Amino acid sequence: MGCCSSKKVGRTPGYEDPTILASETPFTESEVEALHELYKKLSCSIIDDGLIHKEEFQLALFRNSKRKNLFADRIFDLFDVKRNGVVDYGEFVRSLGVFHPNANVEDKINFAFRLYDLRQTGYIEREELKEMVLALLHESDLILSDDVVETIVDKTFRDADLKGDGKIDQEEWKELVKKHPTLIKNMTLPYLKDITLAFPSFVLSSEVEDI
Amino acid sequence: ASPVTMNAFELISTSQGLNLGTLFEK
Questions:
Q1: How would you class B17 by CB atoms within 10 Å of its CB: exposed for 0-12, middle for 13-18, buried for 19 or more?
Q2: A139 and B16 in contact (C-beta within 8 Å)?
Q3: How far is the CA of A197 from the CAs of A52, A96, A155, in angstroms?
């Protein structure tokens, strides 16, 4: 991975006051500052402009900047709140906040719904669910017959589509998660509680500057 | 569990593309 030439905190595009970010997210101020270290590392790994591009996100997730993945694409698109093709620092911290162990469960449920609502219609449709299952199978090199995939999707729809209209709305999604809480397990990153241990260099360099 | 008996969303949640934990690996 490359290295940032800009060391000064204020030079990061979209840099926001840690106090404000801490007040709007489950992170403490020092955790927000530690996240800045991670952000700097990710945002200059390929293009040294202080913004996270999709290729940089893919590189961080897969150690391969060219690896296409439906779910990584969806996550990136949700992080890119301004929809300008890059994730800035504020977007990064606020979006990661949803994955904090202390984040509001409702926020996690809503984020997961938006993630799986591939075409942003306000519903998770049968075709979208099938597309995601196929993407997962492809990624895992698992081969299942179309009949088996249909069975998996049918079974899930019987469980989730309480109104029987062939699509899952937000209310039905909430009910499904209530029944199967493990469905949003991937919306919590335990790492985020120990972020200052993982990226202590900001804290250390701030102390040095203070002296 | 066999994929056939799993809820499709449970299956999907195992995707590497959803494992943001790798962002924190040095």
A1: buried
A2: yes
A3: 23, 17, 43
Nearest beta carbon to residue A133 from set B8, B17, B22: B8
Two tokens, residue A96? 């990661």
Q: Given an 8 Å threshold on Cβ–Cβ distance, is B7 in contact with A156? A: yes
**Is residue A86 classed as helix, strand or coil in its secondary structure?**
strand
Decide if pLDDT at A147 tops 50: yes
Asked if B22 reaches chain A (Cβ–Cβ under 8 Å), the answer is: yes
Each residue of A7-18: b (16+ CB within 10 Å) or e?
eebeebebbbeb
Q: Pick the residue of A183, A187, A188 with the most B CBs within 10 A to test the interface with B by mutation.
A: A183
ipTM score of the complex? 0.89
pLDDT, position A191: 85
Interchain proximity B16–A116, CB inside 8 Å: no
